[in-house]
Amino acid sequence: MNIRVLALENNENCAPRIKNSHSSRRRAFGTNITNVAFPSKAEIQDSKDPSYLGEYANDIYNYLHQTETIYLPRPGYMSIQETINEKMRSILIDWLVEVHHKFKLVEETLFLTVNIVDRYLEKTQVIRENLQLVGVSSMLIACKYEEIYAPEIKDFIYITDSAYTAEKVLETENNILRCLCFNLTTPSTFRFLQRYARVCEIDEYSFNFARYLIELALVEYKFLKYKPSNIAASAMYLTQKILKNCSRSLSEQTTNTDAEIRVCAKDLAIVLQRAENFTLQAVRKKFMHQKYFEVAKLQVKI
Question: What is residue 10's predicted lDDT score, i.e. its pLDDT?
Answer without folding.
Answer: 38
